[in-house]
Amino acid sequence: MTELARQIVLASRPHGRPAPENFRLETVPMPVPGAGELLLKVRYLSLDPYMRGRMSEAKSYAAPVPVGGVMEGGTVAEVVESRRPDFAPGDLVLSYSGWRSHALSDGTGLVRLDPAEAPVTTALGVLGMPGFTAYAGLKIIGQPKAGETVVVAAASGPVGSAVGQIARIRGARAVGIAGGARKCALLREAFGFDVAVDHRSPTFAADLKAACPDGVDVYFENVGGAVWDAVWPLLNRFARVPVCGLVAQYNATGPAAGPDRLPQLMRDILTRSLTVRGFIQRDFAAAEMPAFREEMGLWVADGRVRYQEDIVAGLEAAPEALIGLLEGRNFGKLIVAVA
Ligand SMILES: NC(=O)c1ccc[n+]([C@@H]2O[C@H](COP(=O)([O-])OP(=O)(O)OC[C@H]3O[C@@H](n4cnc5c(N)ncnc54)[C@H](OP(=O)(O)O)[C@@H]3O)[C@@H](O)[C@H]2O)c1
User: Fold this and answer.
1) Domains plus CATH for the chain?
2) Which of 5, 219, 299, 336 is deepest in the core (most CB within 10 A)?
């Protein structure tokens, strides 16, 4: 019997919240490596908020996934067949193979992983792209100083949890925002945030103000929406706002209702000397990746930076898990155990 591979393609573009019908699971013939190629078996697939953007045709920093195309994503994979001298069956690699069980590679961009150094799933989270996003965004734009107050939302996720812990390593006070009591307890108990504030509480804005008696010096923006509305009035003179993500807006179908607040925002940027700067992590990779690998590797190894993973089983679980991620149903770095 011919061996089959599985993949999930974008069946249609979502309008607003993605639905299971926007995805399609397909079985296809097992790919056969040609000269100079490897056959990879995907063990773990990373699910990340940016994938919602790839499902849409709206202009962005990366091209959309075409309808009928395999959903993109970072993966940890095992080499099962090699027609290259530099990789052997059994090698584990970080690859960008997407939502599938098996993939071909010519070796470009693969990063070899050593499970003796760190659990391989960390290459998708705290020691991978999300951890680097936190590290570089905070270092280059946030620049927290000892005694300052750093606020971050989506604080139980891989980016936010790293932001809070790095802020504390730099001597700042870390205030984390998350949805619900369970996530807020995690922020304090596992990640060592000084204060955790629940953005689902009806008293959220007042709770945040009470949590920041000296105002906010760095707001690491992961969310936008109502969380931004609550943080904005608290920003101190010379505050820095690394704009990393706007997950509260990713399923939006049009501009938010209400008055135009842009003039007031521009006035505050001017009169409070605010720095508001967007970034895409890969822009910082050439300059900051070596320092990230060294410092973050050390902090994770000695326990100064901790991480939480939410692992769901089976490739077929990926669509529902991504839909849940955009609504806060994940509890830590969301990963699909594919194999
Ligand atoms: N610029 C870059 O290069 C770059 C790279 C990586 C990631 N990012 C961005 O960084 C952010 C965090 O990514 P991540 O991978 O660490 O994701 P994550 O925290 O694991 O997941 C997203 C979280 O966003 C929160 N959320 C969703 N809707 C919300 C809403 N309406 N209001 C408040 N919070 C909401 C949820 O947490 P709660 O349950 O706590 O609300 C959810 O768990 C995202 O915006 C992502 O796009 C940017």
Assistant:
1) 4-125+308-337 (3.90.180.10), 129-282 (3.40.50.720)
2) 219
How far, in Å, CA of 165 to CA of 140, rounded?
16
Report the residue among 159, 221, 326, 333 best suited for mutation to probe ligand 1: largest number of ligand atoms under 8 A from its CB: 159
pLDDT in tens, the chain (339 residues): 568 999 999 999 999 999 999 999 999 999 999 999 999 999 999 999 999 999 999 888 999 999 999 999 999 999 999 999 999 999 999 999 999 999 999 999 999 999 999 999 999 999 999 999 999 999 999 999 999 999 999 999 999 999 999 999 999 999 999 999 999 999 999 999 999 999 999 999 999 999 999 999 999 999 999 999 999 999 999 999 999 999 999 999 888 888 899 999 999 999 999 999 999 999 999 999 999 999 999 999 999 999 999 999 999 999 999 999 999 999 999 999 998
- Model's pTM, two decimal places? 0.96
Q: Whose CA is nearest to atom 47 of ligand 1?
A: 245
